[in-house]
Specification:
Oligomer: single chain
Helix content: 10-25%
Number of domains: 2
Number of helices: 3
Strand order of the largest sheet: 1-2-3
Structural class: alpha+beta
Strand content: 15-25%
Number of strands: 3
Distance between the termini: 45 Å
Largest sheet: 3 strands, antiparallel
Order of helices and strands: EEEHHH
């Protein structure tokens, strides 16, 4: 893990196209501004875990949450939407966003 010190209004650049700027420091909270291309997905870690959990539950057809604490952390976002709010997806959209080896062909969701 790379550890950097930054002050208010100072930035770091990631991969020449993502800029993270410290906007405000208040107590133990830091407000960050993130400039990234539209194809780069940006989520808070807890939101990313929720999305992963919901995608896995939808792919398995289970009505109970999947324990993602045993799964490896997702790689840095490289594509998709950019958002800091939770993303609500339909089952069809979730299936289309999962790798085929996790859920089979798109058309077989309701097939036995």
């Amino acid at each position: 893990m790379l550890i950097l010190s930054r002050r208010t209004n100072q930035s770091i650049v990631i991969n020449d196209n993502i800029v993270v700027t410290v906007l405000e420091i208040s107590g133990d909270q830091v407000r960050l501004g993130i400039k990234a291309p539209r194809e780069v997905t940006v989520h808070r870690e807890e939101v990313q875990r929720e999305i992963l959990e919901e995608n896995l539950a939808a792919a398995s057809g289970a009505d109970h949450p999947v324990d993602v604490s045993r799964l490896p952390k997702p790689p840095s976002p490289t594509g998709g939407r950019r958002s800091v709010a939770p993303v609500i997806r339909t089952r069809t959209a979730i299936r289309r966003s999962l790798p085929v080896d996790l859920c089979g062909p798109i058309g077989s969701f309701d097939d036995p």
